[in-house]
Amino acid sequence: MTATASAPVGAPTPPDPRRRGWLLPLLRRLHFFAGLLVGPFILVAALSGALYALTPTLERGMYAHELTAPATTGSTPLAEQVRAAEAYVGGGTPVAVRPAPAPGDTTRVMFADDTLPESTTRAVFVDPATTEIRGDLPVYGTSGALPLRHWISDLHRSLHLGDVGRWYSELAASWLGIVALAGFGLWVGRLAVRRRRRTRRPLRGYRRLSTWHSAVGVSAVLGALFLSATGITWSPYAGAHVADLRALVGGGTPTLVTTLDGSAGTGDHAHHGGAREGGHSVDAASFDDVLAVARTVNANSGDVEIRPPATDGTAWVVQEVHRSFPTEVDAVAIDAADMRVIDRVDFADYPLLAKLSRWGIDLHMGTMFGLANQLVLVALALGIGALVVLGYAMWWRRRPTKGVAAAPARGALRQAPWWGTGAVLAAAVAIGLVLPLVGYTLAAFVVIDLLLGWRARRGERVSRAADASSPSPSTAR
After folding, report:
1. How many whole angstroms separate alpha carbon 308 and alpha carbon 281?
2. Is 472 helix (H, G, I), strand (E, B) or coil?
3. Has the keyword Phosphoprotein been applied to this entry (predicted)?
4. Which residue stretches of 398-435 are H helix?
């Protein structure tokens, strides 16, 4: 007689294993492996990110002599300031000039220098009232980062390891959002179970750590998703895919045409890259004239950058560089021969995705809302770092006397319905295509999982064989 036939009438039917929950066990195993293996990268990115968030304020303090000058109401023409900088460096034409944005600030005159790394220029800081040289420092890229901020930025972005080091930050940014979503899903599922059971157990040991981990995670989940999404835009592989996707849907950043015949243009980051092409020289007086025209068009904020033409046949560019709210990044291209406007790009005309990208990057860098923005980023970064530390503490507390804590049970997908399995596989493929480093590491997780399963089955077979070969107590007697 079968077990089913002998079961008493009215007894509950054993649950179908395929109907049991499968999503939460799958999220639990993903969260465990990703947190365990990628956690160190996320921790380093979080701590270096917290330090970077404060660099705009630290920079103003460390380089106060270079960035500030005795506040006066008068100012010499920009041409005189440029000539003073040219005389200081021994000749040469600036690649860019940032006039003093407000009384008490200095003018930044930037020169190409082959001894400096790529995208780095030599900046001479000039008192706009007296043309006194206040300092001479290397500056990096379109952000105009000074040495302290550039050093911390490079630590955060690549651990000072160059292009290979950027893999770490892309790995951290790509997995951060996935781990955060998996953890939030586990919290929601656990909350539902607790409400059904309506029981509370004392918070001690592992359970206390788990409660802290959940509380911090739920508080930081939106911020973690934001940092993950905006951080990916800087990554070498996933960032390129994001840029291609934006261009495909018409959300790319508009390009300013800078050639006098209108045949081609340059993007936002097509300057500060190195020495000037062809040794093209310009009249210093043109800086005042071009800026005056730009002020009447759209470059009317205090923070602007003037870029002379790199070669014959190209226009001057005046670009707003005001990154705090409200965003002002309008740009205009001008032919200095007749002061004719070649092209203009206004932030108000950016596609929505381009605006969101600009705002997201500025929030991520802590420049959108000043010190308040920076303090929020520091708190968020420290919270993410605490999540990693709490996660490892939980793993350590769950370990047996010997060895390490076991991973959550495998086999969740085998209990999923066909549509669940298909959805998971489709999501994994899509994520792997958009975020390549996630795809590679996810494949590594699967391989590790299969090896662990093979090892466990092999151990069980060896144990059963040992039990079968050992004499029974009756035989021994």
Report:
1. 9
2. coil
3. no
4. 418-434
Residue 41 maps to a domain: yes
The predicted structure's pLDDT at residue 20: 54
The strand pair at 316-320 and 331-335 is best described as antiparallel
Query: So what's the pLDDT on residue 267?
Result: 45
Task: Tell me which residue range forms the domain holding 219.
Answer: 21-61+162-253+352-400+415-442
- At 27-75, the pLDDT tens digits run 888 888 888 889 999 999 999 999 999 998 899 999 999 999 987 777 8
Residue written as tokens 């006039």?
A: 99
Q: What integer is the mean pLDDT of 263-279?
A: 43
pTM higher than the cut 0.90: no
Q: Are the C-beta atoms of residues 109 and 85 closer than 8 Å to each other?
A: yes
| Residue 340: inside a domain | no
Q: Is residue 235 part of a domain?
A: yes
Alpha-carbon span 255 to 349, nearest angstrom: 12
> What are the φ/ψ torsions at residue 336 (nearest 5 degrees)?
-70, -15
Q: Cα(first)–Cα(last) distance of the chain, in Å?
A: 36
User: What distance in Å separates the CA atoms of residue 94 and residue 101, rounded to the nearest whole number?
Assistant: 18
Q: What is the pLDDT of residue 41?
A: 94
Peptide bond into 326 cis (omega under 30): yes
Torsion angle (degrees, nearest 10) of CA 254, 258, 264, 269: -50
Q: Which two tokens stand for residue 106?
A: 């200095």
How many structural domains compose the chain? Answer: 1
